[in-house]
Amino acid sequence: MKFALVNPAWTFEGSTYFGCPDPHYPLELLFAADQIRAQGHDALVIDAHLERLTTDEVRGNLAGFRPDFLVIPTAPSYLFWRCPPPELRVPKQWFVALESPAVKVAIGPHASATPASTLRKLNCQVALRGEPDQTIAQLASRPWASIEGCSWQDDSGIHLSSGLAVADMKKLAGLSFSDYAVEAHGHRHHVFYGTGRGAELEFARGCPWACSFCNKTLFRNQFRERTLAAVLAEVDTLISRGVDYIYWIDEIFGVGKTVRQLLRELATRPISIGLQTRIDLWNEESLDLLAGAHCISMECGIESITERGRDELNKNCRISTERISQLLVYARQRVPWVQANLILTEHDQREEIARFQENLRQHGVWVSEPVPMFAFPGTPDYRERFGPPDDYAWERAHRHYLETFRAKGFSDIQDQQPAPIEDLECTY
Fold first, then answer.
1. pLDDT mean over 397-417
2. How far is CA 188 from CA 136, 193, 198, 207, 237, in A?
3. Model pTM greater than 0.85?
4. Can you tell me the distance from the alpha carbon of 428 to that of 426, in angstroms, rounded to the nearest whole number?
């Protein structure tokens, strides 16, 4: 069997998407391709976003390959599955434009949260819930009803899975990148100066916390580490191909039994790193270790400057706001870019926020303006507001977001005039 795994050329006009628009490694497709080949099948990864390919160009590649399965994600890269574009405009356009007779397979946050509406909107045959690293390959050899998280539609209707696939991290061996355009990546995620060649990797997946706003419950939820040997093999492969910066896409970098060993190993290599984390995982000793591993970019989710606000968001943060500030300043003395992210809550007063920001900015820490919170379907926040996700979940969350924040203001990295999902998807 042949699998074509296509990362579309993403566009975000009119979207509430506030992730980075640059190309990033489609790790979910690269891991799946390895699993497909391990099962004796053929896999072709096409990163149209990176290589700036049109649908006509990709359609030509598919004509030569003649895939049995065509896989397209509903969000750009695992890194942004937690904050995806709510609309399915791009994958819908690409499934239609590629005109492939192959079995069409959707993966991603939409397929995980709302498989039935994803099947209908994209007119695809399969929607895989949860982590698809290993379940994509299973489509070729197992009854679909026996595949964890597999929903599909046929002439008899839609068949929904209540399960969620969870990848076995020990089986995700080191990626070789032998057929991927590593050298085409210039973007260094979350680095705002200089030039180089960046990449993204993951050391661990999932998070042991359950913050109310975090969209990870229906995929990448359970915390698991990969084997250190596999990760270091990937690092060394990328270094050999000219990569000088790696951004760790882990939901929460800094947790795990071997993370300190990883940092010690990175310290011996000609590579710098960036990551997203929570500052209460660190202390002065571990921050020194992080700096020694050539960390140059550190994004920390603070969310609220008050203990009451953090409790409302279920952060389970066990240090005070004063200690948070101390650690951020200590980190900034060792790491060139330290960012503290805030979310709008009812418990944070603007005057107090301004004082918190000014204090940290005087020490070189970049502090965001409090950003609005999107109730992604599947998050604890969505369930508390609206209940379990149904076929209208994305539209409901999107409408609530626009109604709540159109007057208060959107994030400065979002389109300031977002359109309704119905307009973006043309699904009247």
1. 78
2. 29, 9, 4, 24, 17
3. yes
4. 6
Phi, psi of 122 (to 5 degrees): -90, -5
Residue 25 shares a structural domain with residue 69: yes
Which residues have CB under 8 Å from 163's CB, separation 6+?
Answer: 129, 130, 148, 149
pLDDT, residue 428, reads: 44
What is the tally of structural domains in the chain? 2
Domain range spanning residue 249? 171-367
Q: Is residue 301 part of a domain?
A: yes
Token pair of 394 as six digits: 């994305």
d(CA 263, CA 215): 27
- Indicate whether 219 and 136 sit together in one domain: no
One-letter amino acid identity for 253?
Answer: F
Quick: pLDDT tens for 203-224. Answer: 999 999 999 999 999 999 999 9
